[in-house]
Structures are given as C-alpha cells and as structure tokens.
C-alpha cells in the first residue's frame, strides 16, 4: 500500500511517518460471497463451505504473531459470512494484532454496525463507481444503494471508514465520482487499487487500463492528494498494487517542494515498494500461504505445516526478500528507481510472461523517469 497522503504531511511537517512496524497478512477467511464481481481473484460463491476451523485459525494467529505479523486484513469472499469472524477478530485484539475488515457492506445493519466498527480498527467497503457502474461490476442490481447505506452507517459511528475502488476499463470513468462521494459524505479514506491479473481478474485481462489511461488516473489521484493537504481536507488517499505510483508522486512532490526532494526519496526507499513475501502475505480459505493474494505460487499450507516453518524457510521467499530486487529482467534491470518500487507486481509479470522475474507489464513510467533520480 502506498500511503501518499501520510507521506505528504509527514515529510512537509517533519513528523514521524506512518511506517509498517511488522508484516501485514491479507487473510481470505472464507470463499463464500453474496456477489460475483468481475475482477475478483477468489471466484467466490454462496455455496462454498469453510475449510479452516476456528482452532486452526487461532493456532496460526499465535504463530504469525511470533513471526512479526502485526496487521491482519479480514477478507474473502465476504468475511462477514463466517459466524466465528468476531471471535477471531477479538482473539487478534487480545494478542495485540491490528485488524482491518474488507467487505462489500451488504451485511451491515443498524443492529450490528456498532459491533463491526468496535471490533475492527478500520473498515473498508468496496464501491466501484456510480449506481449503474457498481451494480454491473458487482453483478447485483441494487447493490450500490445498499453498499452506500453501509458506508454511511459505519461512518456515523465515528470509526475509521474508507471506500475501496478498483480501477478497470469498466470503472475508470467513475474515478472522479468516488472522490466526490467521499467529499460529500466526509468519508475519511479512499483506497484506489490497480487491477492485478488473477482469478476473475486474469479471466478479464482486457479489463485493465492502458498505460496512458493509468497514468492519467494516477495524476488525477496525486493532484487530489496535494489539494486535500493544501486545503486541510481530512481525507486520506492510498493506492495499491502499483508501486510505480511512488515514482510519479516523487516527481510531482519535487516540483512543488524541491528543497524536500532528497528527504522524500529517502522516505520512499525506506518504504521499499512491493513487499510481497517480505512484509506482506496472504492466506486463502483453503489454508494456502502466498506472498500476496494474487501470487501464482503457494509457499505452504497452514493445515499441513506450522506457519513458522512456512514463513522462515524457502528459496522463493528468500529471493523475494532481496531489496531492491535487482534480479528482475527487462526495463527493471537498468531502472534507477527500483529501490523505490522494487519491481512492482510479480503476479502481473507471471500472468503475461510466465516468468516471475520479468518486468511488471503495467509499469507506465517513461524512460526519463526510470533513469533520472
């Protein structure tokens, strides 16, 4: 995750940055879901049966804690379809692990919303555009109205709430709408995700933006981040799955605050770009452990192995933990910004080339931006 709003304020105001002191686990606790989203990597349905038991999950959480995992994002499918979800979240809290909920919001009600926001440190709800776009993309007529209602319910509690938006050819025309929606309803966070080719996302490779479309969208997002900061608008912006955004951000930041360019660049190198297998991992509903949710290769299974044995051993993980990843081929092999982006997504590289160590095909940086620090 690229927390650009926090970077702007912390560097300009010389404050301690919001750094990741530990690893993040994105855990798909269930493959059951009440929607059929076009871009979904888990191909969920309501007919799925949960594989992992509560005791198995708790055992793994304790092992994850010992291995420096300090954040768990509860995902799915729709995580709220698991009856033991709150029990699991409370167990995390008892063990000092911060929990985020990633949901479609359709199970939020007036009677349970306070329990949801009291249990989780942050609640992110997916909205993929205006009413027509969202309903089409989510595969359910009326989904937008119910999801927006859920966001507003959660926001009324005063908890940290955010809108999650995935950029595709089907949704990109709603990018500005999403920001307007957050501004209108004082939603404190917007998370914009770039598409990664996996699951339904791989089936719909033609959904992805062109490099020109992506660059235009990122420039819009960056402009919004600076505008919010300069006008004291308290909306945090985060982008995901496209670490090259940080390089474009650095260029824009440097043009506005040239005296702080070196300080910002050092901060971005410390952030480190793509963290799959390093400070990020995924566990799916079958117990498979991957370096990130989209990764084409598993490194173990928590039903068959202890998490510690999985996370502390393995040639692939060792290779992923090299920073910067100078072994990546193509334009990355000569890029002077690789210490910032760390080569981007290995899942996208594999999906297009069949090689984990090829360049990320979605990199939109021009040659001059790659070569000049």
Helix content: 25-40%
Please outline the major beta sheet. Answer: 10 strands, mixed
Q: Order of strands side by side in the largest beta sheet? A: 7-6-5-4-3-2-1-8-9-10
Q: How does the overall form come out from the CA principal axes?
A: globular
**Count of runs of 4 or more consecutive helical residues:** 16
Task: Tell me the distance between the termini.
Answer: 22 Å
Overall radius of gyration: 20 Å
Protein structure class? alpha/beta
In round numbers, the mean pLDDT is 92
Question: How would you spell out the order of helices and strands?
Answer: HEHEHEHEHHEHEHHEHHEEEHHHHH
Unreliable residue runs: 35-39
Element layout with pairings:
Layout: H1 4-12, E1 23-28, H2 54-66, E2 69-75, H3 85-94, E3 98-103, H4 113-119, E4 122-126, H5 131-138, H6 143-156, E5 161-167, H7 175-185, E6 189-194, H8 200-203, H9 211-230, E7 236-240, H10 245-256, H11 261-271, E8 280-283, E9 288-290, E10 300-301, H12 307-312, H13 315-320, H14 338-341, H15 346-353, H16 367-371
Parallel strand pairs: 1-2, 1-8, 2-3, 3-4, 4-5, 5-6, 6-7
Antiparallel strand pairs: 8-9, 9-10
Helix pairs in contact: 1-9, 10-11
């Amino acid at each position: 995750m690229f927390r650009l709003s926090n970077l702007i304020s912390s560097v300009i105001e010389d404050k301690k940055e919001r750094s990741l002191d530990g690893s993040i686990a994105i855990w798909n606790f269930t493959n059951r879901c009440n929607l059929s989203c076009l871009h979904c990597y888990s191909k969920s349905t309501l007919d799925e049966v949960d594989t992992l038991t509560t005791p198995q999950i708790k055992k793994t959480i304790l092992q994850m804690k010992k291995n420096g995992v300090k954040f768990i994002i509860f995902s799915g499918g729709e995580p709220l379809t698991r009856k033991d979800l709150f029990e699991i979240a409370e167990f995390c809290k008892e063990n000092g692990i911060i929990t985020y909920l990633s949901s479609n919001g359709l199970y939020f009600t007036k009677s349970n919303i306070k329990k949801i926001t009291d249990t989780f440190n942050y609640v992110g709800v997916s909205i993929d555009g205006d009413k027509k776009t969202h309903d089409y993309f989510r595969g359910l007529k009326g989904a937008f109205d119910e999801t927006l209602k859920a966001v507003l319910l959660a926001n009324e509690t005063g908890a940290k709430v955010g809108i999650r938006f995935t950029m595709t050819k089907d949704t990109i025309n709603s990018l500005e709408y999403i920001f307007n929606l957050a501004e209108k309803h004082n939603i404190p966070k917007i998370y914009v995700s770039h598409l990664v080719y996996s699951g339904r996302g791989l089936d719909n490779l033609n959904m992805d933006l062109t490099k020109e479309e992506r660059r235009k969208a990122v420039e819009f997002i960056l402009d919004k981040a600076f505008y919010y900061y300069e006008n004291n608008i308290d909306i945090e912006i985060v982008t995901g799955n496209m670490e090259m955004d940080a390089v474009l951000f650095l260029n824009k930041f440097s043009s506005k605050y040239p005296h702080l360019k070196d300080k910002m660049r050092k901060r971005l190198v410390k952030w480190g770009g793509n963290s799959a297998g390093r400070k990020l991992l995924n566990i799916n509903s079958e117990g498979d452990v991957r370096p990130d949710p989209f990764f084409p290769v598993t490194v173990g299974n928590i039903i068959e192995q202890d998490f510690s044995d999985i996370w502390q051993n393995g040639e692939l993980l060792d290779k992923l933990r090299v920073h910067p990843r100078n072994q990546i081929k193509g334009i990355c092999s000569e890029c002077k910004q690789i210490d910032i982006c760390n080569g981007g997504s290995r899942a996208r590289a594999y999906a297009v080339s069949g090689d984990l160590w090829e360049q990320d095909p979605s990199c939109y940086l021009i040659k001059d931006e790659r070569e000049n620090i």
